[in-house]
Amino acid sequence: MVKIEIEINGKNLEFKVPPLQATLILHFAEKDVWSLTELSNHMLVAPTVLRRKILFWVQRGILRQCTMDTFMTNEKHPNSIPPPSDISTCLAACEEEEEEDKTNSDAEQEKRKKDNKMFWFYIKGMLKNFQSLPLDRIHKMLQMFAINDSNMQIELSQLKRILNENVQQGYLVIEAGKFKLTDDMK
């Protein structure tokens, strides 16, 4: 748990929260308004997990929902901030959420591993056919495969991670900004 102090509308509020909650709210110190997608990409956290984390702060009056997927700090609306709740209640709620997230994150990690293996299979095939390709071309080709399959959607940041992992494992090399299979993988 992380102890943080938030100043909003001249009031100092203290919270003991899991690290992800603390990181999330600190992003709102950098920028007042975030879309769920933008924040999810920035933090590399699944939107469903992030929405639950954001709702924690909305319920405490620190953030408010502008639109379905946009949230902002609540400084402009001082009357909507509830009085600080009992810390033990907050702590218990955070611990429950953290335990639930651990279970969900295990399942998400397993799904991510499975997806990464599937993407790696396609990437290997592309590189066997084209010898070497730049990152953006690999991404565009994967998107073309994904037109009829929502499971095949991949963010550029996720693709970078997959490619970098395979470079580190010695399966790929980067030459002139293009990814290429090592001789062992051909």
From TrEMBL:
Residues 122-181 form the Anaphase-promoting complex subunit 2 C-terminal domain. Coiled coil: none annotated. It comes from the Eukaryota. GO terms for biological process: metaphase/anaphase transition of mitotic cell cycle; protein K11-linked ubiquitination. Transmembrane segments: none annotated. One of its GO terms (cellular component) is anaphase-promoting complex. Pfam families: ANAPC2. This is Anaphase-promoting complex subunit 2 C-terminal domain-containing protein.
